[in-house]
Amino acid sequence: MVKRVIARIVAEALNEQGYKARFLDATDVICVKRELGNTLPDIEKCRQNTKELLLPLFDNYEHIIVPGFIASGTNSEVVTLGRGGSDYSATILADCVGANSVTLFKEVDGLLTADPRIVPHATVIPQLHYREAAELAYYGANVLHPRTIIPLLEKQIPLIIKNSFSPEFQGSVISSQVYSTTYPVKALTAAKQQSLITIEGNAMLGVPGIAGRAFAALAQGGISVSLISQASSEANICFIVPFQESQQACDLLKEVFFYEIKHNQISAVSKQDHLAVVAVVGMGMKGAPGTASRTFTALAEKQINIITIAQGSSELNISFVIEEQHLENALLALHQEYQLDKLYPLPDRKGKKVEISIHGFGHIGTTLVQQMVQQREYLQKNYQIECGCISIADRSGILTAKSEFGDRILTEYAEKKQRGISLYAHRDDSESGSFDQSYQNSTFFHYNEGIFCRFNCGR
Question: How many other β-carbons are positioned within 10 Å of the β-carbon of residue 449?
Answer without folding.
Answer: 4
